[in-house]
Amino acid sequence: MIPLVDSHYLINHSSDAAFVIDGGLEIVEWNQAAQRLLGYAPDKVIGQHCSDVIQAYLPNGEPLCVTSCDGIRCFRREKPFAAHACVARHKDGRQVPINIASVTIPKKDRQLHADAGIAVVFLRDLEEKPDRLPLEHTLKIFTFGSFGLAVGGQRIALVKWERKQAITLLKYLVAHLGRPVHRETLMDILWPNIDESRGWKRLKVTIHSLRHELHAAGLPEDVVETANETYTLRRDAVWVDSSIFESSIAEGKALQNQQQWENALKQYTEAQHLYRGDYLEEDIYADWCMVKREQLREIYLSMLASMADCHGELGHYAEAAQVCRTALVCDPGRESFHRALMDHLVHLGRADWAIAEYQKCQKFLDRELGMEPMPETVRLYQHILEKHGGKQVG
What we know:
By secondary structure, this protein is an alpha+beta fold. It folds into three domains: about 5-130, PAS domain (Beta-Lactamase); about 135-240, Orthogonal Bundle (Arc Repressor Mutant, subunit A), CATH 1.10.10; about 240-385, Serine Threonine Protein Phosphatase 5, Tetratricopeptide repeat, CATH 1.25.40. The chain has 16 helices and twelve strands. A five-stranded antiparallel β-sheet has the order 2-1-5-4-3. Strands 8-7-6-12 form a four-stranded mixed β-sheet. Helix 7 (about 165-175) crosses helix 9 and helix 14 (about 335-345) packs antiparallel against helix 15. It is globular.
């Protein structure tokens, strides 16, 4: 057990950079090695959110320090967290290659001290720079639209895999990226109607097959790690489009909140290019990915709304209108996009097109859902009619 006094001792007698975080994920202690590694004096970081200071990301570009990172979830469950071959940002902006390790503090020891930390985090400086890491061997996983894999710019031919269940297994591990999945869960997903003994035998064969196929593509077998009857797809060994998608949108939101419209649009455009279709759309009847699919679809539509808003702020009404049309192809009954499109068309001097858009919306809702447009949609329509002479030009 490690009480607070021991955490203080650990970081101040460690050869590695180290710091302590509290339950609010703020830094409460910061050693001299951390100052040498990242350039920040203790008084500049204590009280700051750890993700704002470390700003770590993986070699494939995926942010590691986000609001709800895997480390935070581990610490709150009193589980240690580690990440290998990642990159932090120095105070002067340069990249610092590091490994991350940690020790968690038991809850009963936290309760003894009002200012107790929940974990001690260690940062070890790496001699190799990130650009020397074998990024060509990073497994790229495409989850939007048709599921696909690539290594070094070359697609992996999944149709040639001998065991198709190995693909389903990989998909499930991708959906739980970086999190251990118990073997019983995998057996229930892959073979729900057979006994545990037969399921375990099949799982061992399928795991072996998956590792064999990945190894044949030039990847190390430990891309999928085994520990205590669980299997984990290593986050630091793969690039996953859906993870980059969410990270890009989060960064875009932050930039938009700062009224950096153009920079926000760059992030949103990157995310839009990644969304090639619904999440694991080939597994439409698989319950285990259904919720994630709908969540990502809603995130995508919300992102399109944000894109249209940014274009509108910049006076790019034609681009904003096109984004709304893109969203309506995905969800033609979403009235908020009909209203936004009508508004952008008016700004373009095409009130007649805006009126026609309302009529299109009204017909769709009546035909497909048997309902009338929402009051705010009707009010916008009436406002356009009144302001532009009431001419309904189809």
